[in-house]
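Sample pair:
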Amino acid sequence: MFANFFLLQLRKLAYAIKNSTTIILPRWKEIIELCALTLTSKKKLTVRKMPRDVSIRWNSTYDMLKFSSTYREPINKITDDRSMKLRDYELKDPEWKIVEDLRDCLKVGFFSPFFFLSLTIIHLFMQIFKTVTLEFSTDTPCIANVIPAMDRMHNELRAACNNEEYSPAIRAALKIGMNLLNKYYSITDNSELYRIAMSKLNIFFIR
């Protein structure tokens, strides 16, 4: 799918920059420094290596997309430099739009690697899910907060599905993701632990 293709392009670019310590990496740093001085850079850029996402840490995909969007100008310049031999990783404006849509869709989740059954769907979750992941990664997570968090994610997904600013492909993938979330939401009804936490198992209180 298109989403996975663009993610793969960014991963390969990050790998190439990191592993070419004598040619590409010095040029990358030089380009960032030059871009930081230009008026076209909307944010102050600092010299950083491009992060690469890790399959067992799905939040890292959001971080990679966020970085890529912020450092779009240096990425465009280094992939446009023929001497770097990175033209295969060049992204056009419509492709950058999809990257930015993915980034915007990704900020709330608390999903395990099990959910990587559908990589594209999970990547589309992140603006909607990174915040929740961080909340449930604290020292005192509370099971009673899971259902409200899932409700919040469902509402965010539904709104994103109806957002015509996103491409039809992304909205279709978000719809599939919302259905997957609903599937796991319904399973919580079979768990006494969740029902107790949500004060729905009356016999618990009677006893």
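Residues 113-197 form one domain.
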